[in-house]
Each structure stands twice: as C-alpha cells, then as structure tokens.
C-alpha cells in the first residue's frame, strides 16, 4: 500500500483575542513648536496591528504621530506624548489578553514646557529632563497571566541589554531590533521567549515579521492557560 501523505496544517488561532499594540514615536515639547523625539515611523507596529486584525483578533492600536493609514479592522487611539501613550495603553490593557509594545517612547521629557516659543539667544540653553513612565514595566506589574511582548532597539550589547529589559519589565518575550531597521520596509530581528533561547530571524518584510509575531503570540496565549506561572523561568542568556 502507498502511504498517505497528510498535509501539515498550522494550529487554528485561539479564541478571538484583544491585543493592544503601541507604535510610532512620542514627542516631548519644551516649547509650543520644539520637541524631543526620534525617527520611528511606526511601520512595525502598524504591520502587527494589521496582522492581528487579519487573524480575526480585536486590536487596539495606540499610535504616536506617524504618516500611516490606520489598518482596517483596528481601533486607533492617537497620542503625542509618552504620558498620553501610557494612559491610553493602560486603559486599553484593562480588558486585553495581550500587548505588543513596539513604540519608540521617549525616555525623557522636559521638566517644564514654555508657554511661548523660546527666542534664540547667543548663549547656551539648558533643558532639564526627567524620565518618562516605562509603559512595558507598568503593564508587567499588572498583567497577571496575560502576555506582554516588548521591543528593544539596541546598537551594542544587544542581547544582554534586551535580556535585562525583559526581566526588569516582566515581559514574556522581547524582540531585539537594530537602528538599521528604522524607517525600512524590511527588518532583521531576534526573538527571546521567557525560558527559551535566542532565535535569529532572517531579513524579511515587516509584514512577514508581524505575521510570525502574532502567530507566536497566539501560541504563547495557549501555553499560558495550561502552564502555571510559577513554572515559567527567566531567560537562559544563551
């Protein structure tokens, strides 16, 4: 008899999830027309939101200021500052199953914002900066059995720094990103799941990476419902 070759099938998605995605930069003004920011375009976060919607999930996209069209099937909350993004993300996460945090949130903001444009003067101008809230860490403290996946953009000692961030923010997974990916339609990333080893993914379009990350998130949600939290370990560092 000729053996029957069965076609391999991917597991079906879990029940419809509510996934919160953050994307893009924030802007931290020190006067009405000047601000601190970064070159994030939001392409990765928007691709993830689009992939989640295609998979049938409910997606809330908290977006900083970007020049991108809202993905079909997503609820978009537009914000400007890190404080606004933190407030909107925490509110959306209250009834969410998971969060994927891709936004390039400014680490600092000016302590004071001038009410009027500051005139240029022929002398040094000092701007006093204070830390912004760490959104991933804030969700990590309140997530319970829910899943959080964060992004880490590093230009040196990437894996070591990403592992420390993963532990400090109590994330279930972290995606290591590089400066060369900013603004590009393609990216090379590395993924670390809690208790697992680093995975280096080959260069792909951000849409392809987004699809893989959403499917990986689905499998993490499945495991979280059968594995006691006490059995989950920290990264191996390998």
Q: Give the strand order, joined by hyphens, for the main sheet.
A: 5-4-1-6-9-10-12-13
**Residue share in helix:** 25-40%
Q: Write the CATH homologous superfamily.
A: CoaB-like
Average pLDDT value? 90
Q: How many individual helices?
A: 5
Number of strands: 14
Which outline best applies?
globular
Low-pLDDT windows of residues: 227-238
CATH architecture type: 3-Layer(aba) Sandwich
Q: Give the amount of beta strand, in percent.
A: 15-25%
The number of domains is 1
Question: Sheet bearing the most strands, described?
Answer: 8 strands, mixed
The string of secondary-structure elements, in order, is EEEHEEHEEEHEHEEEEEH
N-C termini distance: 46 Å
Summarize the structure.
Helix content is 26%, strand content 24%. The chain has 238 residues and is α/β, with parallel strands linked by helices. A hairpin with a 2-residue loop joins strand 2 and strand 3 (34-36).
Question: Could you please describe the fold and organization of this structure?
Answer:
With 238 residues, the protein is of the alpha/beta class. It has a single domain, classed as Rossmann fold (3-Layer(aba) Sandwich). It has five helices and 14 strands. The strands form four sheets. An eight-stranded mixed β-sheet has the order 5-4-1-6-9-10-12-13, sandwiched between helices. Strands 2-3 form a two-stranded antiparallel sheet. Strands 7-8 form a two-stranded antiparallel ribbon. It is globular, with a radius of gyration of 19 Å. The N and C termini lie far apart (46 Å).
């Amino acid at each position: 008899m000729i053996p029957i070759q069965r076609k391999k099938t991917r597991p079906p998605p879990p029940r419809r999830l509510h996934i919160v995605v953050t994307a893009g930069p924030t802007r931290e003004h020190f006067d009405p027309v000047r601000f601190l920011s970064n070159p994030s375009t939001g392409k990765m976060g928007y691709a993830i939101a689009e992939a989640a919607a295609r998979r049938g999930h409910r997606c809330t996209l908290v977006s900083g200021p970007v020049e991108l069209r809202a993905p079909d099937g997503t609820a978009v909350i537009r914000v400007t500052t890190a404080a606004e993004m933190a407030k909107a993300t925490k509110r959306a996460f209250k009834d969410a199953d998971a969060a994927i945090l891709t936004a390039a949130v400014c680490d600092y903001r000016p302590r004071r914002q001038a009410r009027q444009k500051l005139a240029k003067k022929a002398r040094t101008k000092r701007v006093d900066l204070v830390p912004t809230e760490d959104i991933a860490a804030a969700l990590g403290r309140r997530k319970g059995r829910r899943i959080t996946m964060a992004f880490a953009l590093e230009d040196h000692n990437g894996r070591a720094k990403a592992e420390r961030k993963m532990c400090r923010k109590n994330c279930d997974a972290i995606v290591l990103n590089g400066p060369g990916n900013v603004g590009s339609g393609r990216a090379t990333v590395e993924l670390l799941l809690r208790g697992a080893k680093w995975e280096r993914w080959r260069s792909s379009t951000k849409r392809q990476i987004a699809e893989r990350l959403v499917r990986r998130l689905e499998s993490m949600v499945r495991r979280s419902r059968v594995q006691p939290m006490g059995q989950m370990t920290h990264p191996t560092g390998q």
